[in-house]
Write a structure and sequence with these properties.
alpha/beta; uronate isomerase, domain 2, chain A; TIM Barrel; 2 domains; four-stranded parallel beta sheet; 49% helix
């Protein structure tokens, strides 16, 4: 295929099927800055303005989406996380790309080459050498540092994901840097209630005690320590928390029994399955009340089944591409958990994300139960996440939210990524969003009020998140 033929594949009106969709994207969505309020980017890389040595280091270093595809394509681990040279790894990825057609990786790969490097040639084994050398040479220039890459995508805010025991030194250092880009931490306290490994849990609690300068021997002590860390996060600009859960557990007596359960944990005693649920629920309820007091947003990423491959998890660790959609019951516990907080008017702004598409309508209707008029879109159905942040998943999430709630008050897309090249996902989302609205206008399903619809598109892409999180305050 020639270069000109490749341009036909991803031309200016990519994913935009109607003239109205093109107008909505070009005039309203595309110019808006990006608030990427949830990602897993390295604060150190941003603070130190890391310069990547080559395209493999930038593109493949942490991207388990690509690793997963390479394994399916029969690529040896040597060329994924092993000791092959950077170019050998990139070449194996290039060999895989033509076989990713109809997987979102095919679109993302070529959007990333186009948007960051102005490359419209299709990536495959025969073009790998030229593309690798071109991109790796560009990466030597200052404009392709981490901050330069974010500037190219018009990124205004990045919300990193940080453990309570993180020092936040990189956030503090970056706060002194002048410029448009802002970086804020997100409080991710999963290890404070993840108790499958008793020794590991106690080691973590000891680390929390040390950094908070708090002796933790009781359940109350745990929250004194967490509160101190929340104060540090808040001073660093944190306005959100995040939690990764298979399901949001609820046990009605959890807060009463939690002090006794924490004592058992500190004594290295194994809890029963019921006791584990009670303890997790109690910690999350207490944290949620603290978020409400702080005025933070709480996020719950729910339903992923992680680390399925025991052998390779033992070798490669977590977040290496061995996770999948889980099949867990969600509705009852979600309702009871949020209702317990709402009863005492302590339910913070909340975003819930599902990984199982079977739960789309459950999540989209659940948020309506707890929006109380105190703020626009107080409880949100989050963007298509993980296995659902692709065209079909985004369209279905937008449709479910449209049918069951107010899409116009949605806080928009996130990358949820460890890669500095992942920001074209915002463009992908914006094109899909504009295509839906544009098609409805041209079918006569919506009025041809481009100014009003365009303003709502801008709200979804940018202003709703800006007003919801209030990062600058």
């Amino acid at each position: 295929m020639t270069k000109s033929q490749a341009n036909q594949f991803m031309q200016r009106n990519f994913l935009l099927e109607t003239e109205t969709a093109q107008v909505l994207y070009d005039q309203f969505a595309a110019p808006m800055p990006i608030i990427d309020y949830h990602n897993h980017l390295s604060p150190k890389d941003i603070a130190e303005n890391r310069q990547f040595n080559n395209l493999t280091e930038l593109w493949l270093e942490h991207d388990h989406y690509k690793w997963r595809a390479m394994r399916i394509n029969g690529i040896s681990e040597k060329y994924i996380t092993g000791d092959a040279t950077p170019f050998e790894k990139f070449e194996k990825w290039a060999e895989t790309v033509p076989y990713t057609m109809r997987n979102p990786l095919y679109h993302w790969t070529h959007l990333e080459l186009k948007n960051y490097f102005s490359i419209t040639t299709l990536l495959n084994k025969s073009t790998a050498q030229e593309i690798y050398e071109t991109c790796s040479n560009l990466l030597k220039s200052e404009s392709y540092s981490t901050r330069g890459l974010l500037k190219r995508m018009n990124v205004e805010v990045v919300g990193t994901t940080d453990d309570p025991v993180d020092t936040l030194e990189h956030h503090e250092n970056f706060a002194k840097v002048q410029g448009q880009l802002r970086m804020f931490p997100t409080f991710r306290p999963d290890k404070a209630y993840t108790i499958e490994n008793i020794e590991g849990y106690n080691t973590y609690i000891d680390s929390l005690a040390a950094i908070s300068k708090t002796e933790i021997s009781t359940f109350d002590d745990l929250f004194i320590a967490l509160s101190k860390r929340m104060d540090v996060f808040n001073r660093a600009g944190c306005r959100a928390s995040d939690h990764g859960l298979t399901h949001l557990v609820f046990e009605k007596d959890s807060e009463q029994v939690a002090p006794m359960l924490f004592k058992k944990l500190r004594n290295r005693e194994i809890l029963t399955p019921l006791e584990k649920n009670q303890f997790t629920c109690a910690v999350l309820l207490n944290l949620s009340k603290m978020y409400h007091t702080k005025g933070w947003v709480q996020q719950f990423h729910i339903g992923a089944m992680r680390n399925n491959n025991t052998r390779l998890h033992r070798t490669l660790g977590a977040d290496a591409g061995f996770d999948s959609i889980g099949d867990f019951s969600q509705a009852t516990s979600l309702s009871r958990f949020f209702d317990r907080l709402d009863e005492s008017n302590q339910l913070a702004k909340t975003i819930i994300y599902n990984s199982n598409p079977a739960d789309n309508e459950v999540f989209a209707t659940m948020i309506g139960n707890f929006n109380d008029g105190s703020s626009q879109g107080k409880v949100q159905y989050g963007s298509g996440w993980w296995f659902l942040d692709q065209k079909d998943g985004m369209e279905k999430q937008l449709t479910a939210l449209s049918n069951m709630g107010l899409l116009s008050r949605f806080v928009g897309m996130i990358t949820d990524s460890r890669s500095f090249l992942s920001f074209p996902r915002h463009e992908y989302f914006r094109r899909i969003l504009c295509n839906q609205w544009g098609n409805d206008v041209e079918k006569g399903l919506l009025p041809n009020d481009i100014a009003h619809i365009g303003s709502m598109i801008q709200d979804i892409c940018y202003r709703n998140a800006k007003n919801y999180f209030k990062f600058q305050e």
